[in-house]
Amino acid sequence: MIIHYLKISLRNLWKYKTHSLISALCLAVGIVCYILVSMYSQKMEVDLPDMERRIRLEYSQDRNSFFSMQDAQLLEDKLSHELGKLSFSQFFHKSIEAEIINNEQHNFPFIINFMGVNDYYFSYYNRKLLYGSRLIQAPDEVILSQNFVRKAYGDKNPIGTIIFTESSLQPDSAMQSFRVVNVVENDLLEFQTDCYFSYEVMPDQPIAINGYLPPQMNLEALNQLLRSVPWERNGETIYPEARLLSQKDAVSMKSLLINMLIMFIASLILISGLINFLKFIIQMFYNRQREIALRKCMGASVKGLYLLLFFEVFWMMSFAFLISLVLMELSMSAMQIYIPNWGIPDAILFAIYLLQFKIYIVLLAICMLIIWFPIRRLRMTSIISQVNRNRNKHIFRSVMMWLQLSISIFFIGGTFVINLGWYEAFGRTYSALTSQEEKEIIIVKINTQRMRQHLNSILADIRALPEVTDELKMEDNTMMSHYMQTYTKADRSEAYVSVIKGDPHYFKFLNIPMSGKVVDADASGTIYVSEDFRRQLDKDSIQDMVEFYGQSYRIIGTFKALHKESSNGHTIGSVFYPSNQLNAICFKMAPGTDIKLAIRRINEICRHYVPVTLPVEIKKLPDDKQDFMRSIQMMQGAMMILAIVSILLVVLSIYSAISMDTISRQKEMAIRKINGATPTTIATVFGKAYLTIFLLAFAVAYPLLRLAMMAIIDNMKVVSEWWWGVVLFFSVAFMIFLTTAYKIYRIMHINPAEIIKNE
Question: Is there a contact between 473 and 466 (Cβ–Cβ < 8 Å)?
C-alpha cells in the first residue's frame, strides 16, 4: 500500500511539475541561506565541557584590559596551589612572514597567523595534538595547526623541521628559528591560526588568563583570595578578579543580541521558503477535494489520505534537500573565488552538511504535523457536500502569503535604506579623476619581506613596461580610505581630520589642485592641509603651524581634498603628511591600456622574485578598499542577496498561488462570464485579494522596518525621510502586479464554452 501511495503522490507532483520545482527550489534556497548565515554568526561554536566552572581573570578596575607577562607569571606562582593550572593566550593575533625548511631542506616562505600560548592552553580548549602529547617546552619551539601543515608540508610529517620568522616576532632578540614539536587539530573557532609559539617569545604582548573555579569554592570566595595579589599601577592599587565565562557581561550580551538578530533574519528566509512549500502542497490538496471525496466514498481511510499527503511532502522535501546540497556546493565554490583567504577545515564542512541534514529531518517532522490540519478539515467531507459547498477561501494560504510578503518588504526596504545610508556617509566623495582614469591606476602593495628585498628590480621591470606613464609611492597601503586623527580647536573642543601619508607627488598624480611648494618625501615636520581644514584653522587664528598630539607641524601647502575624501560632516577636513616610507606603489597606465593584461604582466614580474607561497596584492584603484569599507560593502552585498532571495521567494510564491487559483476557479469564472461578468469584474475578483494582502503586509512591515533602521543607523538623515517609504510601496506593488497580471489576463479572456465542455 505504501508503494501505491508513493506512486500516486509522485504522479500528482509530476502533474504540477513546474510548481513543484518552484516550491522545492524556494525551500532549498531558504535552507542554504539559513546555514550560511548561521555559519558566519555563530562560527559553528562548540560547547566546551564544564562551562559552568570555567573562569576568566581580569583586572578589577578594567574588564577590557589584559595581563602583562610579568603579572601573569606572578599570579601563577603565588596562587598555583589554589587555582591549579591556568591557560595563557596572547590576545592579539598577528601576521608575519616566515620561512619553512621542510624535510628535504627546501625553503618556502609563507605569511603566517600566530599567537602565543602556554602548554596548558591546548588542554583547556580541548585541542587534540596529532603527534603524541609533546608540548612547547622551550621558547624556540612551535606547534603548527593542521591546516597550515597541509598547506606547507602536504602529507609529510613536519616534526623536527625548522621555521624562521621575521625579527618583528622578537624585536630585541636574535632568536628567529623555531623547531616544530607537534601539530594541533583544526579548531572550529580559530582555524585561521597557523603557528602557536610560547607566550614568552613575545613578552610585550598582553595575555588573557583562563582557568577553572577551584572545587569547594564559589566565585565570591575566589575573588577574596585574588585580593591577596594586588599590584600598584599609576599610583592605584588593583588586583585580579574572576568572572564565570557562563555569565554574560554587557559586551557579550550585545554580541548575543546581534547574533540573535542575524539568526532571526536568516530564519525569516527559511520560514518564507517553508511557507511557499507548504502553501503549494496544501493548496494542491484542496484543489483535489473532489478526488479526495471520491476516495472516501470508495473506502479510503483517514490514514490513507494522510499517507497520500505525507508522501507528496516527502518527495518534495527530499528533492529540496538534494537541491540545497547542490546550492551549498556552488556557494562554497563561489566563496573560494570571491572571499580572500577562504579556507574551511573538513570538520567545518562536516558540521555544515550535518546541520543541513538535521534541518531536513526537523522540517519533515514539522510538515508531518502541519499537514494534519487539511486532513482534519477533510475528515467529514462527502461527495454530496463537496459538490454543493462553496470553494474554500484559502485563509491559511492568504495568511502565509501575507507573512512572506511582509518578510520581503522588510528585506527590500532594509537593503534600500542601507544603500541610501551608505551613499549619505560615503557616496559624496571628492575625486579629480574620471571613473576611467581611476581604472587606469594600478596599486601594488609591498606586503612581504621578499618583495622588499627585490623591490628595486621589480620597479625597474615594471617601469620598463611601455604602458606605465607615472608612479606614486605611498606609506599608507590604501588610497581609497584614510585614518582619523584628533584636532583640538581653539575652544578646546575636539574634531576629526582625515589623514594620509606618502610622496607629495600625490597631488599631481591624482590631479588634485594644490597651492604651495612641493617638498621631498622625507620632509619631516611639514604637512599639507585641505581647504576645509584651512578654513577651520583660520577660525582658530592659526596660520603657519598646527599641533597634533603635542607635536607641531609647519603648513607648506593647501589642497582641495584627499582622493575619495567624504564630505559627510564627520570630519572638518584632511591632512597630508610627506613620508618616504614605502608600503604601496601606484602606477598610472596610458589611456586605452588593457588593465587586466597590465595587471597580469605586473603580477608575472612580481612572481619572478616572489614565490607563489607568498601573496602578491595588485588591484585597480577603484578596488582598493580599507577593511572597514570592505566590511560595510560585504554587509551591503549580504543584504542585497537576502533581498533578492526574498523577492524570488515571494514572486515564485505569488506566481504559484495565482496559477493554482486560476486553474481551480476556471469553471466559476466561466459561469460568471455566462451570467454577464465583464473582464474587469473577473480581474477584480482575483486582484482585490492580492491587493488586500499587500496593503496589510505593508502596514505591518513598514513601521517595523522604520523602527529597526532608526535603531541601527539612527545618525543618518535618510532614515527619518518619508519618500523612500513611498518608493518602497510602489516598487513592491509593481512587482506584485507584474507577477499576477499575465495569469489574470489569461483567465479574463477564457472561453466559457471550452471550460464547460472540458469540465
Answer: no
Q: Distances from the Cα of 193 to the Cαs of 116, 135, 182, 586, in angstroms?
A: 11, 17, 15, 31
* Closest residue by Cα to residue 690 from 663, 643, 653, 724: 653
Q: What residues contact residue 243 under an 8 Å CB cut-off, 6+ apart?
A: 55, 56, 57, 58, 63, 249
In terms of phi and psi (left: phi > 0; alpha: psi -120 to 50; beta: otherwise), the region of 251 is: alpha
H helix or E strand, kind and range, residue 107: strand 107-117
Rg of the chain taking only CA atoms, in angstroms: 33
Give Cα 302 to chain centroid, integer Å: 48
Q: What separation in angstroms does the CA of 396 have from each of 268, 374, 400, 411, 709?
A: 18, 10, 6, 23, 30
Interatomic CA distance for residues 553 and 527, integer angstroms: 6
Please give the Cα distance from 403 to 267 (Å, whole number). Answer: 13
- Under 8 Å CB-to-CB from 629, ≥6 apart: which residues? 426, 480, 481
DSSP string, 489-541: -TTS-EEEEEEEEE-TTHHHHTT--EEE----TT-TTEEEEEHHHHHHHHHTT
Tell how many helices (H) and how many strands (E) occur in the chain. 24, 23
The single-letter code of the amino acid at 414 is G
- What are the φ and ψ backbone dihedral angles of 618, each rounded to 5 degrees? -130, 130
Query: Whole-angstrom Cα distance, residue 8 to residue 16?
Result: 13
Residue reference for cell 583660520:
538
Tens of pLDDT, residue by residue over 452-488, are 989 999 999 999 999 999 999 998 767 666 778 899 8
Instruction: Give the whole-angstrom CA distance, residue 6 versus residue 8.
Output: 6
CA neighbours closer than 13 Å in the CB half-sphere of residue 738: 10
Q: What is the pLDDT of residues 233-265, one digit of tens each?
A: 666 777 888 888 776 544 444 455 555 666 666
Looking at residue 714, the DSSP 8-state letter turns out to be: T
Contact 617, 445 (CB under 8 A): yes
Contact 158, 180 (CB under 8 A): yes
498, 573 Cβ separation under 8 angstroms: yes
Q: Is the pTM of this model over 0.85?
A: no
C-alpha cell at 48: 566546551
Helix or strand holding residue 316 (H, E): helix 302-338
List, for residues 376-415, the tens digit of each pLDDT value.
665 554 444 443 444 444 566 677 778 778 877 887 887 7
**Distance, CA of 656 to CA of 536 (rounded, Å):** 62
Which position has the grid cell 469564472? 669
Question: For residue 746, how many C-alpha atoms fall within 13 Å in the half-sphere facing its CB?
Answer: 12
